[in-house]
Amino acid sequence: MREYSTPLLLWVALAAPSLAAVDLVTVPRREGTQLTIYNSEDITMVREHRLLTVKQGINRIQFSWANTLIDPTSIDFRILDHQDKV
User: Residue by residue, what is the 3-state secondary structure of the chain?
Assistant: First the structure.
């Protein structure tokens, strides 16, 4: 039993990462940034412009910023090319 336990443990250790779900993280180049600070409201508005290239079909785009409160209705997508094919 001992001679089989070492290869089995090695196989489990190497196979486990391959079974994990992987999200692709790509931060495209920032085209522009605007910052507005509201002192009386204790809020800040950050506006960033980034160009995203997506593939044909369904694309999952996820935004995440640590320790922030983001209004999900404030994200705006605009189709720049091939608007008739979206």
Answer: CHHHHHHHHHHHHHHHHHHCCCCCCCCCCEEEEEEEEECCCCEEEEEEEECCCCCCCCCCCCCCCCCCCCCHHHCCCCCCCCHHHC
Cα angle value 73/76/77 (rounded, 5°): 135
User: Tens place of pLDDT for every residue, the chain, 86 residues?
Assistant: 456 666 666 666 666 555 555 555 567 777 888 888 888 777 778 888 888 777 778 877 777 777 777 777 877 778 878 777 76
- Return d(Cα 78, Cα 85) in angstroms, integer: 13
Q: What are the extents of the domains in the chain?
A: 21-85
